[in-house]
């Protein structure tokens, strides 16, 4: 059973309470349960983390270099600011899917650019919290395709 990391950036611990008209009513715990369910169905285990601290997310990406077959990441506001996250992901050799709950392209101009997108193998935005499950499905296909090579 290979391992998928699901990493979440700042303020996502407030999901369910934070601007529900933008981010919906599901909590991060609900998202984690959905991710576990889909991952299990596809034969993967997940490690699910959230932090408001950039260095902690970087440390998890480094950890993933040792034991993960892929990463799903919602870097939240760090998407738009963090070269350090991009560098960490560039040092990770397995597939990466970036997720945004909201459609960042429909929002303020500063959300239109993501450093992480430069590394991501795919980007999902605006599909709500369902985006996480779709990202895991895509990651599982990429992992399977890589195994066949
Ligand atoms: C977000 C979009 C970001 O612009 C924002 O800073 C977030 C959440 C999303 O999931 O839609 O915190 O990544």
From TrEMBL:
Entry's EC annotation: 4.2.1.10
UniProt keyword Transcription, yes or no: no
Pathway(s) of this molecule: Metabolic intermediate biosynthesis; chorismate biosynthesis; chorismate from D-erythrose 4-phosphate and phosphoenolpyruvate: step 3/7
InterPro entries, per database record: DHquinase_II, DHquinase_II_CS, DHquinase_II_sf
Catalytic activity: 3-dehydroquinate = 3-dehydroshikimate + H2O
Record keywords, A-Z: Amino-acid biosynthesis, Aromatic amino acid biosynthesis, Lyase
Gene3D superfamilies: Dehydroquinase, class II (3.40.50.9100)
GO terms assigned for molecular function: 3-dehydroquinate dehydratase activity
Family the entry assigns: Belongs to the type-II 3-dehydroquinase family.
UniProt subunit comment: Homododecamer.
Protein name per Swiss-Prot or TrEMBL: 3-dehydroquinate dehydratase
Protein source organism: Pararhizobium polonicum
